[in-house]
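Teaching assistant here, posting this on the class forum so everyone can see the example we discussed in section. The complex has two components, and the goal was to see what a joint structure prediction looks like when all of them are supplied at once.
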Amino acid sequence: MESARKNLRVFLAFFTPSFGWLVLFFVAPLLIIFLYSVGETVSLTEVKTTWTLQNYIRILEPEILTLLWRSLWLALISTAVCLVVGYPVALVIATAPGRWKPWLLLIVILPFWTNLLIRTYALLNILGTRGRVNELLEWLWIQADGFLTLIGLGAYNLIGEEFEPIVFLGRWSGVIIGLVYVHLPFTVLPIYAALERLDRSYLEASLDLGASQWRTFRSVLLPLTMAGVATAAIITFIPMLGSYLTPALLGRGQVDMIANVIERQFKGANDWPFGAAMSLLLLYVTFIILAIQAFAAMRKTRGAADG
Amino acid sequence: MAKVRKSRPGPFDYARKRSLQIVFLLTTIFLYAPILVLIIFSFNNSRRGGNVIWRGFTTDYYVKAANNASLMEAFANSITIAVISTIFSVILGAITAVTLWRFRFPLKPGYEGLVALPIVVPEICLGVAIAIFFSYFNLYMPPGTPWPFNLTNIIVAHITFSFPFAAMVIRTRLTTFNREMEEAAKDLGATEFQVFRDILLPHMKPGLIAGGLLAFTLSLDDFVITFFTSGPDTVTFPVKVYSMVRFSVTPEINAASTVLILITLILTAVAMRFQTFGDERT
């Protein structure tokens, strides 16, 4: 690495274009939405910066608080599902024979390269009350019903008189399935990376000393890969919280998340200052989460250095 | 096999556990079944929805999709935007990566953070911010601007979110560069530009390709940011499909989606080839 001063002209030739681009098309837009978020609409297209906090105060309205609460819960539940599913998946990939690994990884990553809208649309297709999933469930129900009749329990209607299709669309369940479906690769990769870095002799030691597989998992494997799990949780949670498409298509306007309401301020309600305040709120939440993570990582390395 | 199973599972033999294998299998089904159903039913000979009952094989909907002028225009727009924004993203990403890799300068961590920021900022914020930015300065292409210049706003937005990703990929590649080659070239009288063109650039090539493919996929994939920055006449494929899906589910969308999935699959295969190719040479 060389000092920029020594070769200032070359440095500036490399530095200026990307820095300029970011200032112009990234920093400036963020500053403008900040100005909008403390402004008021004066006419159809004009917003005046009056340094009002009105738009932020509006976030405390019960309707918006419910929305935030719902978004938070949906993202939390979906992240939890992703972790519970993603950990064993990562474990299988990390411990598979070497020549299988790239292929198993590819299985998980490939959907991630497929268009998000197409994936959501694909889910929309099969989750309807007359979709493939309910068709499969109905078939299972008929089998179960036949089995119960066979063993003489048919008369009790243990699993209901008739098959009732499960409604996914427009419900929390549909949105959660969608969020998990879209973000699962984000979860698997960091956990996989943590498992790959792990020193396997710890596990051997644990098993040699007589701990069961489960105990080894709980007291050795999981704590040692906790950093990876935390990273996975964060990079799954952040995009989930700002999801637009999944709740829009699978929630059918009945399970809105923050992004849907932001969109409405710009396309329908035409309340740009409030939309700007809401987007910044999402940005602040993101920064807070990342700051907590950075802080935790710093404390951990410092603790390790002290110890 | 029988011998293997009898032995006590080793400390890291989770991949051989039946229960974990089943979880992996179910996850795979979960990830792929919806896409497979979509692809299969793009060939279904049924007008309604196309996804309820199998009524025989047809490629009619591919023909229909190809004849749907607005859908094809959106498709062409998407590809054009992706190509142009990829070129810019690779150039910007490469010089960003070189800046970060080569120079020591004041406030470097700040610059590093700034480059990484578009990656972590929620898509919707970026979309809203860029859309307001354009409206604030009234930066719109005048109506009737010839194609593809009418797509400028979307392309600018796409470059902004994809070049930091390209920069990351290219930077990783640069870490394997041998500085002695550069010094040798300079000792032999090469100018700064010659060193860059003849030594650094060839070394960066696999990174440039991988970064470019990433930028291309990100651009092709993007819905939210495009949704905010696109005007009524500049519709991309995802935005068009979104507006179609809201009203009805048609097999045409299945057909068009299948084509896009195929394109992405090919690109991924190419990307992987280049990546392994690059690894072998280091």
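For the discussion questions: The longest strand of chain A covers residues 39-41. Chain A is about 75% helix and 5% strand. Think about how each of these relates to the inputs above.
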